[in-house]
Amino acid sequence: MSRAGLWSPLLLTVAAACGRDVTFVDPRAATEPGDTTNGNGGQQTVVRGNLDVTVTIAPEDSAIAQALGFPGLALVGATVTARRLGQPLQEAITDSAGRVTFEALVTGAWPISAVRVLTAEERAALPAGAEDVAGFAGGGTAQVAESGSSFTVPVVLGRQGGVVIGEVFAPVYQVPSLFYYYTGGYLELYNNGFETIYLDQMVVGMLEYPADNVRETCEQVAVHLEDPLGLWVRYFYRFPGSGREYPLAPSTSAVVATDAIDHRAFVSGLQDLSGASFEFLGSADVDNPAVPNMVDIGFLEYRAAVGHGLTIGQTVINVFLSAPVDPDTLPQYVSVFGHRFARIPRGAVLDVFTSWPTPEVQAAFPFLEWCPRMVNEVFDRESAYLYDSGPFLSLRRRVLQVLRDGRIVLQRTGSSAADLELAAPTPGSVP
Question: Which fold is adopted by the domain 47-159?
Fold first, then answer.
């Protein structure tokens, strides 16, 4: 098996059996082919090299950079992160030339991300029309050679936006000797802007490997996975309403639950979602009549054997929010198994929220191929490597600032790796 898009119940069982008693290789050792050479006596020698990274602001954003007083197109004070499975995380701050140097990295591919969140003083200096700029973010993959390598990361503006995906809670719990409990999760939308937004007819759903074929490699699915023209999806859920029935005021949240019930009655540590704003509904579901139902407009029912509508997560948390679309009118792709995917156009995408399992979880499944990207960088510069279905923690957006009137603005730089954090679930509110 080469891909890790969807874990089967068998893999989840393996993960549960492994628990926390997983033995990992020495993090100082190489973990991918080509990283080592064999020395005398069969001993391995790790091959290392230095990496010089330069962070530059995209030319189309140069006017904003000049207004902020940044010299040229170099991004000063950016946090640059280099990560690689099995290796210690590397992090540094760019100097006056927008540069950092990472020394003695294991040779091979290193995903690089760069983010610079604006200070309150810098946001106050933004010109008209750019008041919602939160910072700069970018990313890419550098190849480190023994002789040393250079890599340039272009960064673009990240804006706070209007409605965003503020939090996702996706617990997977195995009831002792019985079954997995998937249905205690939710996603939360937050109005990060300054005007009331109406959720009517907006679309949410889950991203996955469009090929829907675990035998294909990341390279083979990249043509759809990293399409800059849109997101290829097959699970669509539309908010009810005809236009102005479901307002979301500034700095308020809407919780969309898999099941709008009190999950504490079944699993200690889960949440009471009986007061959710909306709920997903499946063919074998019990409906909470007090909570409006999301409308399934997808090409097939999600996990029909379970029948509870969209159950977020299980392996990764990759969700999207878009303006109203009709899937039947969009460009379509049919997988090798006959499953239809439609492409939501880039202009309709309002927010994308992506993550991969933690490096520790990935290391427990070395036979799987973990693709470097889930979407094209125009939608998300780098996924967060945070998700672990074991603990009852949610993924949520960081707080960018608290306004004088107490309203909270969430961070949205366009890079999930920079914007997301693990935290205790707080459905219906932000910290």
Answer: Immunoglobulin-like (2.60.40)
User: Which of 25 and 58 is assigned the larger pLDDT?
Assistant: 58
Q: Tens digits of per-residue pLDDT, 85-136? A: 778 889 999 999 999 999 999 999 888 888 888 888 888 888 888 888 888 8
pLDDT digits (tens, 9 = 90+) for 63-84: 888 888 887 889 999 999 898 8
Q: How many CB atoms lie within 10 A of CB 283?
A: 12
**What ranges do the domains of the chain cover?**
9-21+161-423, 47-159
- Could you give phi then psi for residue 248, rounded to 5 degrees? -125, 105
Of 361, 353, 304, give the one whose Cα is nearest residue 172.
Answer: 361
- Dihedral, 149, 415, 299, 288 alpha carbons, nearest 10: 150
Q: What is the mean pLDDT of the chain?
A: 82
- Cα–Cα distance between 115 and 399 in angstroms, integer? 15
Contact 112, 81 (CB under 8 A): yes
Residue 123 CA: distances (Å) to CA of 15, 24, 279, 399:
44, 44, 37, 15
Instruction: Calculate the alpha carbon distances from 318 to 188, 344, 352, 355, 387 in Å.
Output: 13, 15, 8, 6, 10
Buried b (16+ CB within 10 A) or exposed e, 396-422: bbeebbeeeeeebbbbbbbbbbbbbee
Partnered with residue 241 across adjacent β-strands are none
pTM above 0.85, yes or no: no
What is the C-alpha separation between 363 and 85, in angstroms, rounded?
7
Q: Check if the beta carbon of residue 173 is closer than 8 Å to that of residue 181.
A: yes
